[in-house]
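Each record in this resource describes a single protein on a pair of labelled lines. An example record follows, reproduced without changes.
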Amino acid sequence: MIWKRAIRYVTRKRSKCLLLFMMLFIIGVFILSTLTVKRTLRVSEEHLRESLGGSFEINVKYSKDNPYYHEEEVEENGAKDILMYSTKQLSSDLIKRIEEIEGVKFCNGTTETLCQVEGIQSIQGTIALDEEFKNLKKMVATNDSKTNEDFISGKVKLIEGRPLTSKEQGAVLLSREIAELNRVNVDDKIIILDSSGKSVPVTVVGIFEPQIDEKALDMVTAYDKLQNRIYTDLKTLLNVEKQDYIYGYDKNTGNDK
C-alpha cells in the first residue's frame, strides 16, 4: 500500500522528484570529489616528503645559557685567547636513540677541528695565511659519510673506495685533487699530527670530489676549501685532539622517512 502511494506521488510530482534527485546527486558527487581530492593531496604530500625529505638539527649551544658551557683563557706563543667548549656533547648513544624514534630514517653526527697532515700539501685559498696555518686541513668527523650532510646534499661525491661507517677507526676520505697532488691512493697510509705533534697513522679508504665550483672572487682560506677537507671517524679525531672536553659530536642532523 505504501509503495503504491509512493509510486503515485512520484508519477504526479515528477518535476519535484526530479529536482530532489538532482540535488541529492550533486551533493553526492560533491562529497565524493572532496574525499578524492583530500586523498590525492595526502598521497602527494607523502610522495613530496619522501622525495624532498624532512630534516632537523640538534646543536651544542656555545653560550652562557648552556649550563655545560665553559670559557677558559689560554696562551699560545705569547698571545692570549679564549677557549670555549661544552662539557656535555652529543654522544653516539644519543644518535642511536634518535634513530629508534618512529619516522626517523637516520641521524648523522658531525664535529670538526683543524689538523696538520705530515707530507701532504694543501691547495691554497684566496686569503693569505701565516706560514704555520698554510697547510692546515679541516678534519670533519662523522659516524656515517653516506648520511653526512655534505654527501647527501651533493656538495661532495664519493668517486673511489668506500664510505666511512660507525665502526671505523683510523680511516679517512681525501679529495681527488689532494690525492693527485700528493700521489696518494686508496689503501695508502698517511700521518696526521696530534695536538702535541705525535703521529696518528690513518688509512685512506676513499676519494671524494667536490661538486660545487668555487667562484674566482670567493674569499676562502686554505683550510676552508672543500678540496683540503678530510672526512674521518670520531675516534680518529679524538686521538688527534686529545682534549678531555671533546668526546662527542657538536651537531646531529636527522632525516625522516
About this structure: The mean pLDDT is 79.
